[in-house]
Input
Amino acid sequence: MNCNMDSPMQTSSQISDLPWKEWLVKSAVTGAIATAAGSMVFPAQSVSLAGYQVPGSVAMGLGVAGGSLVGDLTHQYVFPYIPHNEKYGKMEEAAVSLAASGLGAYVACQAVGGSGSAPFIPAVTLGAGSYLAGDYSWHHFLNKAEGGFLV
Output
């Protein structure tokens, strides 16, 4: 019996078409920007992460990079399955990525500073600002397809 069912597995050509370079490079750049900004916010503080002591600025960068990656993955794998979503797709991507990066920064601030010590608005602003700078860097400096020089 030959059933012609679409396989849920992706073919190698479909996998190579995914924007994984953009996700990883943009998340890394966003995390690096947040780490630099976090070094001004947490110059001498550290946090235990997976059993290792890491500087607070690195925790900030990891939180923001994780938020950036979550936003990109949500755009790729969640939004296409929401009916009648084509009109607001770009706005939703930007809002979710900014919010996820800001939330990642806030969670990192809470981990570094202890309970209740991190103000919400400055942490979210640092995370969202880092995402905007990383996204701008990707589109204007790094992406060869858009005139950049790296990837």
